[in-house]
Amino acid sequence: MSAQTVRPFETELPFQVKSYDVDYVGYVHNTVYIRWLEDLRIAMLAPHYSLERCVKEGISPIILKTCIEYKKPMKLFDTFTGKVWVSKLEGVRWTVSHELVHNGAIVATAEQFGIFINLQTRRPIQIPEELAKKFRAHQQQIAQR
To answer: What CATH code would you report for 11-143?
Structure first.
């Protein structure tokens, strides 16, 4: 099985480290990674269930926990590719996985755990059925191979 086959909704984006991304020692500041993860997650959702659509429907994805492993530091002007995919989606919870790749090497991995909420009540809701259905279809496709 290829990596693409086992990574539902996989999305890639190019990034470049900007001057405002680095800290006083010249490396990307840890908070910048959170912004990049957000950019990746929003881009991943866009073709399947966009943030704009969520807000119009009165719901929103919310992050409960982020875990990042920094493997190699990145510096000013480095260019890299960010990858994101849904690794788990059931009930009210979902998990999104990330890789940041620079010069062919993984420089950071991350997992984010979240839920969807109703924007009026601020209470958790089921994963939107359209997303859940696409995820299940992908899982069935893998199981049939």
So the answer is: 3.10.129.10
